[in-house]
Amino acid sequence: MTRAWNLFIFVLSVLICISSQEERTYQRTLPSGAKVVCDFCPPGDYQRSPCTLTRPTECRQCRDGFYTEFWNYVPECLPCDPCEVNQEEKRPCTRFHNRVCQCKPGYFWHSHYCKKHTVCSLGEGVKTEGTPSKDTVCEPCANGHYAAGPEGNKRCTPYTACKGQEKPVISGTNWHDNICVTCDNFTTQGWPTLIKPLLSELFAHQNGKRQIHRLRRFVQSENMTSEHTVQDWLNQASEEQLKNLPEKLERVNLQHLSLKVDHKIKRFIQEAKYCDNSIM
């Protein structure tokens, strides 16, 4: 009943607004049959009682949480709409206008609710940023480009060209840049330190439920608690542990990931040996 009454009041106020763009009075027929011209109530007020032959229109201010936006003779103010789940207030409710809400950052209005912006898939960059009213638009990165930047806002960026004594140990793909390293880097930092950021990013892209579950099994098999992540393991992994990583990933049925990791580790080890031989 309340919802139907609110709808009636809203429709009435709109009709009054349409019919009174110029006039701020309206004609009323009294029970006696006499006609009288009454004043509208201003925005922010409602009509407490209509005028008579001897008394003008009585208006009252809307109380907190209610409003009227136009000149009117509605018997009640309209209730301000609440913000929905995952919305934030863009403009507060006042006596004179309704509350305006919009989806909070990271969400957009989809039919009747706020939905999370699309996170671009592996190898895709943001073409058009999402807004409170529109979803993110993604595009696949073209040849020679990779998706760079924070998760949810990656952009297709040209590969970095190796300079000077740098060598491309790992060529760029659509999800990572060229990995350029010098022999001095291998000597001073060691290949395990150099490869860990690349492996970290590779693990971060394993976002399927089955992949995440198997990575947790791997972490637990390394005598770490369920609170630890694969990133925690990677941070403390020794050279020997990294060498054995492909085999251990295969044991938890992550064969495809195991092959990728094995290829990258072998390339770094090969380049490190080349640098050692060239120094000797």
What is the helix fraction of residues, given as a range? Answer: 25-40%
Instruction: Report the total helices.
Output: 7
> Strand order across the biggest sheet?
1-2
Report the β-strand fraction as a percent range. Answer: 15-25%
Tell me which oligomeric state these chains represent: single chain
Largest sheet: 2 strands, antiparallel
Count of the separate structural domains: 3
- DSSP strand tally: 16
Key phrases:
TNFR/NGFR_Cys_rich_reg, Death_3_fish, 7 helices, Tumor Necrosis Factor Receptor, subunit A, domain 2, apoptosis, two-stranded antiparallel ribbon, 280 residues, disulfide bond
How would you characterize the overall build of this protein?
The protein is an alpha+beta fold and 280 residues long. The chain has 3 domains: 34-101, Ribbon (Tumor Necrosis Factor Receptor, subunit A, domain 2); 117-158, Tumor Necrosis Factor Receptor, subunit A, domain 2; 159-278, no CATH class. The protein has 7 helices and 16 strands. The protein has a two-stranded antiparallel ribbon. It has a two-stranded antiparallel sheet with strand order 3-4. It is elongated. The chain starts with a helix and ends with a helix. The model has no long low-confidence stretch (mean pLDDT 89).
